[in-house]
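Discussion board: Methods & Data

I've been asked by a reviewer to show the raw model output for two of the constructs in my manuscript, not just the figures. I'm not sure how much to include, so I'm pasting the format here to get opinions. Each protein appears as its amino acid sequence followed by a line of discrete structure tokens. Is this the kind of thing reviewers expect to see in a supplement, or should I convert it first? Here is construct A:
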Amino acid sequence: MIRQYSIEDTDKLIALLDQNIPRYFDPSEKLDYISYLKNEIEDYFVFEVNNEIIGCGGINYDIENKKARISWDIIHPNHHGRGIGKQLVNHRIELIKSNRNIDTIIVRTSQLAFKFYQKLGFQTDSITNDFWAKGFDLYLMSLNINKHREH
């Protein structure tokens, strides 16, 4: 089940991030995530199975530039490769497509996950080495949703 994030989920989401450090996130990113949860959430969703949160991911909007950014996708390591990330991303893509003020979805990811987004139709626009932390490169990717939007 995918549902809206609530403040009561915070500790569970931080624990979920911890499960993915250091393989997918650098330890230095934990403070950024806590700050995001406190100050930057616009739309954020959790994926629950039997009342256990096993995934999460958000959307931030830049209406002025007709963009939305998929942010902070985290899946419990025991559930990688089971389609949960894909369901979370597709849920947000469908939500974004319903907003006629958005043309492009942006995702900022690393070399560890860019192929996942590539399979979902995102293209790599640029790569910045050691952006997130040493050994964690930024892959800036985008998806033009006008091509995918039903008219």
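Construct B, same format:
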Amino acid sequence: MRILLTSLGTRGDIEPFLAIGELLKEQGHEVICAFESEFESLVIESRMEFLSLDGGISHALLKDRLSHTLKEKFSLRKLGEYRRLYLDGLAYSRALVYRQSQVISEVKPDKVIYSGLTNYPVIWSMDHPGKAILLLPVPFLYHYVQNHSFLLFRTDFGPMINKWTYRFAHYLISQGIALSARKSNIGEKTNASKIRKFLKRNKTIYTISRALFPQPDYWEDHSKVLGFYQRTRRSTWYPDQKLLDFLIAHEKIVFVTFGSMINRNPEKVTRIFMDIFTKYNIPVIFNTFSGGLIAPSDYDHTQFLFVSSIPYDYIFRHIHSVIHHGGSGTTHNGLKWGCPTLIIPHIFDQFVWNDLIAERGIGPKGPSIHRFTCTAVESKILDLYTNESYKERAVELARKMNEEDLKEELCRFILEP
């Protein structure tokens, strides 16, 4: 069977597709990945075929421009740059839909597994029923959960109003997809009503551990929570001597990372962290991968270690607890190694993971990056580090997560008509 995987976003958005692609490839299926060009090397590492989704405008360039704009102080010039980014984003979206149509036409797939950030597979699936499968790494988006509203509302309003928030969100999503089709001159006859009906019955895979988010028993069979997956690592990465020495020197280390997230003042955020850790003499490894955290010119090298990139599956087994932005992949990875967790959410689903961590007693509820101050975070960090119940619950959850084996069910769900 020929299977096309297509998604947009950050590396965290791409990783679940790569992991599932490897599973399908192992079973003898032909797997093609259509992502943005910046992820080509990851696809090659996983030994799958790569096709670029990049249109006339580079998404990476748009993200770089957004990063620079966020760091600037408020001004009329900044407002003007936001407007230009918005217009360029619309142009990119139209080009992307057209490029997706080209890819699917070229590949002629038997199945398409797509993310909620890609619009064309929904349009295509109208004429190819049963062939498109939505993959989501976060709950509270497409399928109603009685005790939780649609993701962006982030509140339990009660079952009736919660259901209304999902219907309202589906209305907006379907309108957006229909508009994207019209603006791209593709699927002009596809209207929002048809799209909304399709989204309600389309196959959906949630790549979330059932130990962390059990599947509601009132969901229909076309929507399933089928576990968290990671691709096989073939990296030649090895720890350097500085890292090895740091791990040997300390028994109870905190790891801090913001993944690919950025913020307005990374120097200030880093300094707040360091001041708190210094006060309580806590050893810390900072990951500065995307620039959301920045190493100062002068600091205590015996207490702090800064790294620019490090495999999570290596470092999480050596640390006590983790502070991060709250991406689905980072959340799952930390918990699989039994790490108590403090999330500093930046956007969208990260607030949901923050809530879930606190509800399950695996760590305190963290403040938003937009309200990040010493006062807001100091007591949270100390609680994370000293509350042994967090560690006990994290270790128990890790045991359950590592016992999950849903690969056969996942592949059967994808491949069945």
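Answer (T.O., handling editor elsewhere):
This is acceptable in a supplement if you add a one-line summary per construct. For B, something like: The longest strand covers residues 30-35.
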